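request received
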Amino acid sequence: MRIIRTEDYDELSLRAAEIMASVVTLKPDALLGLATGSSPLGLYKVLIEKYRRGELSFAKVTTVNLDEYVGLGPEDEQSYRYFMDHNLFCHVDIDRERTHVPDGLAADGEKEPARYEALVRSLGRQDIQLLGLGVDGHIGFNEPDRVFHEDTHCVSLDPSTIEANKRFFASAEEVPRKAYTMGVGTIMRAKRILMVVNGEAKAEVLSAMLKGPIDPMLPASILRLHRDVTIVADKAALSKL
Ligand code: GLP
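response:
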């Protein structure tokens, strides 16, 4: 595991974007695993700037996103499909048909996890999977649990996640209680993993993830078993290490 320490969020975004961009430069038809949340926003902005400067093309890239709220569709500003469209896809030359997010409005919600898992598998292994880190140690929406869930599944969100994510909604009541998420197996199949972590609020959980036991109660701890993980974190997030 490599840890890249940065002074602040801007430097973190630059360094992480350089890693993502290098994957696409070396393999223009790369399969990128993407993430939402506030942590990757700066990185996406840098990728858009690189595209505008003509340094990068997404024309042949395929993407798979980690997760989506159950019940929210692409037009809903809080959905992760909307987030991806508006924070990255609409601004670059990607073919939207090759961008994949679990379908929050799937008519048969019971079957959606298996459909999405099969789709991701059919595309091969992610050349790189981008991740943020939840305050409770979640990756995607893999919440603390007694076991690690391997494949894409439907989860009930942890109260701490609802609390952390309510900033994007009018109130905590409006945060969906359920989400579809890649499993830890789906994530760990990626050839490379890139995690971005910023801010003091993540310092405790980042330290526990790196130094504590590998435990499904802290899902991100399983990344220590992956052979190619890079964490780009600012000094505030690394302050407890
Ligand atoms: C959200 C998402 C995760 C994200 C995490 C951290 O709930 N499901 O994919 O990485 O929480 O979010 P943020 O980057 O806003 O702190």
